């Protein structure tokens, strides 16, 4: 035992007496904290980090334990980026487009209007160069970002009044984040971003006139239909992806096997969240006509959609004119979407069109 110091010898002796062996001493436990943007009952968003943490603890045999703090605990639902960057939390679970005010290049990694669906976007992330571009953006903030679960194609939002023309949008106050918020602002809306836990109250009190959230699986439980009965189909978030944020220094301190376990658990829980949300929306949609007859399902008129597409094109040109990295990201997405969409049309669209 010459290779060990005196204190280590004593610890080894104690472990051997206890029947634990030297393996128990070598089992260093890493304890992390994860901050989410979501409340404790906001399923399935809160389930993705919770399930991830459970998988990590089980796969690592208790060597990496991650405590998940919902927004009601840390009180800063839209402060996750700063808390993880600053080291108060080793991890976070949120949505990349919430940070566009800090770094506009974070915006496209959630979703883009008229962009890719979930399978298309995940293919881009893992096989089309998306992960490398995301690493380039977040590295300058000493952060790592990984896909954190997709909501799939989202609904276009809840409105107090019917939208028949572009003029009907002007002057409305709407909660809508990301690039879609920029489009709506260009069309004359007052756009705001509000934390999930404050959405219903803001709509009820008239702080906002309209909002988009996710889809029927999550929206119905929020009760928006009680205040704003017009429910519009989507255009703005065809494949919204949430994110796992990690403090880069904390990640580098983990042994290689724990790093790999963490990456695998994030990927598995992200996919599971997509399935869970898809199921929730299917269940809710099947019951809307019977259980919620006051909800009026609408599609934005063609003139409105054309105005949104025009604003989208103009804004993309404006925002990329002096930002080479943003242009690189959007060009990558656009090129991949053009390629993958041909297969999506062949494999999904034609099948659905011919079998509905």
TrEMBL record:
Na(+) binds at residue 213. GO terms for molecular function: metal ion binding. Substrate binds at residues 154, 175, 212, 237. The keyword Metal-binding applies. It holds the Pfam family DctP. GO terms for biological process: transmembrane transport. GO terms for cellular component: tripartite ATP-independent periplasmic transporter complex. Keywords: Metal-binding, Signal. Residues 1-26 form the signal peptide. InterPro entries: DctP_fam, SBP_TakP-like, TRAP_DctP_sf. This is ABC transporter substrate-binding protein. It comes from Halarcobacter ebronensis.
